[in-house]
Amino acid sequence: MSARPQSSAPSVPLAATEPSAEPSAAGSSAAEHSAEGERGPGGTAGQQPAVAVMGSGSWGTTFAQVVADAGTPVMLWSRREEVARAINEQHRNPDYLGELRLPTAVRATTDPAEALRGAAFVVLAVPAQSLRDNLAAWRELMPAGAVLISLMKGIERSTGLRMSQVIASELGWPSERIAVVSGPNLAIEIAGRQPTATVVAASSLPTAEAVAGLTANAYFRPYTNEDVIGVEFGGAVKNVIALAVGMASGLGLGDNSKASIITRGLAETTRLALAAGGRQQTLAGLAGLGDLVATCASPLSRNRTVGELLGQGLSLDEVVRQTKQTAEGVKSCAAILALGEELGIDLPITEAVVNVLDGRLPVAELPAGLLSRKLKSEHQ
Ligand SMILES: NC(=O)c1ccc[n+]([C@@H]2O[C@H](COP(=O)([O-])OP(=O)(O)OC[C@H]3O[C@@H](n4cnc5c(N)ncnc54)[C@H](O)[C@@H]3O)[C@@H](O)[C@H]2O)c1
Ligand SMILES: O=P(O)(O)OC[C@H](O)CO
């Protein structure tokens, strides 16, 4: 599949080089990916930018498929040799995506230098808390002029920074070359090519448009947005709200309770994002409400599942042991709460989740704790 809807991929001056040929064979050499000759602006007709996706878990691998299905070959960086081999030889990533078959235009390497060489777009798809160390290790390999695309939905625990801020601070990268992709994007559904929409946010509209042009295909529809702050808070906080909804579900509570947490969760996410400089409209959109609903409603969500297991009475240690994939809310929630305190913003659901995870609040007492708070206006 390579159907690309009409898009006016704009000219972003990308100083990198292009792949020599469309990849065809399984296990073909990563050298094919590296560039020869000068590259023009990303996404211009007749030229394919080189794309590196750093991280081959559920979302990194799926995003690589999205880009390949939109017509551009991708080189994935995998930490583990067996994952890279499975992608190159069987066109599968069984650890993360089961039997789903990947396009042959997605290839993998464990060598970050090979993945990054000549890339015009570098997609970052590692756990939020490891990003800074990963960037430090890759700093010298980052192609000057590339657009960096964050797929991560988390807040750095040690600094309270959003992922685009970590990228800017760790690499000294200009903000106009950093984009964020976030929305109702459960990886497994997208890997199965089920239609979805998303948001590509960047402080520079041409950068957001370039990334939208790179990713738009028959089942993936990106909308651009210049509100990076709102989009990143929407993605990070919804994970915490999904933990709370999962807890309610695990406690056997019904849809009224869950809808109340989702709606009040959106209220606290919006309060925080606005205080930090985000825009209300963004939180009412795909990266806010849209992602919140998808994550809180879906049994595919890792965050909701972690919450549900806690609600059923498992300890956090037991849950973490049986959750192989990244549930960002667990590690980001305390940093989000601290940001709220810094900005003078009340985040009652986040606070309750932090207290449950830290063992200060028995999960069974979470509903009563939220309901017994002082009465107030819905709009405060
Ligand atoms: N899976 C989804 O549906 C989805 C959708 C949208 C956004 N996201 C976000 O994307 C990010 C990545 O999530 P994912 O679902 O791909 O996670 P995952 O757990 O499926 O995969 C994480 C990947 O990072 C690698 N990794 C783990 N520790 C690492 C380290 N210290 N250094 C480098 N690599 C390391 C793993 O080997 C794996 O390849 C998260 O922030 C998540 O919130 C996920
Ligand atoms: O599985 P989760 O909870 O990390 O959620 C995945 C995506 O962020 C949903 O958009």
TrEMBL record:
It is an enzyme of class 1 (oxidoreductase). GO terms for molecular function: glycerol-3-phosphate dehydrogenase [NAD(P)+] activity; NAD binding. Sn-glycerol 3-phosphate binds at K153, G183, K238, D291, S301, R302, N303. It is found in: Cytoplasm. Substrate binds at K153, R302, N303. Residues 51-204 form the Glycerol-3-phosphate dehydrogenase NAD-dependent N-terminal domain. Residues 15-32 have a biased composition (Low complexity). It comes from the Bacteria. Residues 1-51 are annotated as: Disordered. GO terms for cellular component: cytosol. Belongs to the NAD-dependent glycerol-3-phosphate dehydrogenase family. Catalyzes the reduction of the glycolytic intermediate dihydroxyacetone phosphate (DHAP) to sn-glycerol 3-phosphate (G3P), the key precursor for phospholipid synthesis. PANTHER family: GLYCEROL-3-PHOSPHATE DEHYDROGENASE (PTHR11728), GLYCEROL-3-PHOSPHATE DEHYDROGENASE [NAD(+)] 2, CHLOROPLASTIC (PTHR11728:SF1). This is Glycerol-3-phosphate dehydrogenase [NAD(P)+]. The gene is gpsA.
